[in-house]
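Notebook entry, structure prediction.
Reason for the run: the old model in the group folder had no record of what sequence produced it. Starting over properly, with the input documented here first.
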Amino acid sequence: MRFSVKKPTALKTSCKVIRTAPPLDLLVCSIARRLNALCQYWHHESAEIAALIQKSIPHCRNIETIDHTYWQEWQRYSKHTGNLCQFGGLQGMVSFQGEVAPALPWLHIGQFLQIGSKTTFGLGHYTLISPESVS
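New structure, fully documented this time:
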């Protein structure tokens, strides 16, 4: 399974930004965290929804990650503060080999939710590439 990171995507683990392709389990947890945050905002802190999301996260161990990403730095001007804001994130291609089927529904959802930091600025967008389209 392969996906293309279209917009800079910055994911964190243990409070550190990841500068290489994330393992599949971290990617799925990031998607679940984003889904939970949106559900909590729109459904006013529903513990039941949070528990259902957490319970449905698949275990994605022993999956090989093939990294063809690069770190992209960029900046934007903040009219509010009058300063340049530094942004950065991964772009490129990531492939996973192994039993990825349990994670596919999550990866499909993540395409629409966007992941990582600064999603409100349009960052964190990726698209799945079907095996048929890879030659």
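Summary: The CA atoms of residues 30 and 57 lie 10 Å apart.
The old model has been moved to the deprecated folder.
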